[in-house]
């Protein structure tokens, strides 16, 4: 992390877990144990039907609510989809875009780019995900793959908007597997992502861009991951479903930075 130049963000990604009633109960518990300090931004990205319950429960807190997906179109015949305007009006601040689980369901780099542009246009903070498969890592093409994903995701973003984008590096082999990237592996790729942003948007913007690590980040390994200079926070799946674990990770973001 480097709190001097950029924001630290601890964001939960609930995926397809918890009902609206369970959301309410979770938030009540979380509020009871939330640390007082303001050393990082906090967000919970929840299933769309849980957004109203989350927003209501978190109204008097500093925790923001996010969605897990969005449609790039403004409105129309897209059964089952949600627009940026709907998410904003419902009280969302963030939206996860291009998660590998959605890419596996057919989301393309062009979709990721269109959604990112739409989110920025609407004033939502996009959390843009990238990450390599185990096969790609073992073939030694991680950097090339990540470069391509980032370049395509960030195409046509106006320079003045890039600082609003949060990038999440999530190696697919580490998601939900308990097999976390080592702090060195995660730092290496996050540093590389920053160098790609530097080439595209200049060094001041690269220095100000928040880059998260995600993939089995939990209450046991977060401190070391967050101690890396280019890892500005976490996108947390499993461990964000348990209030004590999520809070421990928030506390781990309170450490000296470079
Ligand atoms: P995990 O998920 O923490 O359960 O590995 C992270 C993510 O997919 O965002």
List the helices and strands and how they pair.
Elements: E1 9-13, H1 20-33, E2 41-45, H2 51-58, E3 63-67, H3 84-90, E4 94-97, H4 100-103, H5 109-122, E5 125-130, H6 134-138, H7 142-153, E6 166-169, H8 183-201, H9 203-208, E7 210-214, H10 222-226, E8 233-236, H11 243-252
Parallel strand pairs: 1-2, 1-8, 2-3, 3-4, 4-5, 5-6, 6-7, 7-8
The structure holds 2-phosphoglycolic acid.
Can you walk through the features of this model?
This protein is an alpha/beta fold. Helix content is 40%, strand content 15%. The chain contains eleven helices and eight strands. Helix 1 packs parallel to helix 2. The model has no long low-confidence stretch (mean pLDDT 97). Bound molecules: 2-phosphoglycolic acid (PGA). 2-phosphoglycolic acid binds next to strand 8. The site of 2-phosphoglycolic acid has 13 residues, from strand 8.
